[in-house]
Amino acid sequence: MVNRKELDPEGSPQAAYGARIRRLREDRGWSQDELAERSAYSSQHISAVETGRKPPTLRFSERIDVALGVTGTTDSFEREWQDIRHSSLLEGFPEYVAYEAQAVEIRLFETGVVPGLLQTPEYARVLADSAMRRGAIAPDQADKRVSFLVERQAALVRAHPPTMLVVMDESCLRRRVGGPAVMRAQLDRLSEFASLPTTVLQVAPFDMGERRPFNLPMNLLTLPTLSVLAYAESQMRGHLERETSAVLALLAAYHQLQAESLSQAESMAMIQEVRKGTP
């Protein structure tokens, strides 16, 4: 068997796609070479898709459907490819959320918008509807995005909630999302969050300038085992980092971020200042 790599089908939509090809292929007793011959793709290409090293394409999905005899059915890979292409969740994010629900400590840094775990439903709905109007997601995916966020927030309401340390770039406060009522409610939500005994909320001000160590959002999770995971997103996908040296470097950068940011008292004062300026 070429490149036998075990995948977690729950890790990402692409991992689930590759794992299902492997399962259906092996159910038929076919090798990668045999599926390659039936689909007119190389065995190396089949292996790369099965192990998540190469993303599937529409043409590949159509060929695999013909080879496996699932064209036009609810099990078709063309249909799964469409779902992946239009998914409301980034690749890698579902796996991160599973760890998030177990975390004993959550460290977040966000730019541009309020972090999801601190968003009001109205604020989250405005962002989802905006993505829908741009054509980035379908209407039903906008609904799923909001309901998924509510589920994430609910998972953290437990007998022993995680400690949450949040640093928001000043742009998260200054950027108006929705109308005045939406922003007022969102700013009030931030104040409520900061008053909890298990939370710390800080603002990274614009004048931090080049001293800000992160240019993209960053999430760091401490699990019950005290191991630490890092998650970061680009525009197209997310990446969950487990490698110890890389995670420790990110954790050190987060400590630097906290040291350079406003104190919680100063941050609350800025939030109230912005709140007063909201019509």
Structure description:
There is one protein chain. This protein has helices at 13-27, 32-39, 43-50, 58-68, 77-85, 93-100, 121-133, 139-155, 171-174, 180-194, 244-260, 264-276, and strands at 105-110, 163-169, 199-204, 218-222, 228-233, 238-241. It has 279 residues and is of the alpha/beta class. A hairpin with a 4-residue loop joins strand 5 and strand 6. It has 2 domains: 13-85, lambda repressor-like DNA-binding domains (434 Repressor (Amino-terminal Domain), Orthogonal Bundle), CATH 1.10.260; 93-118 and 159-276, Endonuclease Chain A (Endonuclease, Chain A). The protein is built from 12 helices and 6 strands. Helix 2 (32-39) crosses helix 3. The chain has a 6-stranded mixed β-sheet with strand order 3-2-1-4-5-6, sandwiched between helices.
Question: Topology, pairings included?
Answer:
Layout: H1 13-27, H2 32-39, H3 43-50, H4 58-68, H5 77-85, H6 93-100, E1 105-110, H7 121-133, H8 139-155, E2 163-169, H9 171-174, H10 180-194, E3 199-204, E4 218-222, E5 228-233, E6 238-241, H11 244-260, H12 264-276
Parallel strand pairs: 1-2, 2-3
Antiparallel strand pairs: 1-4, 4-5, 5-6
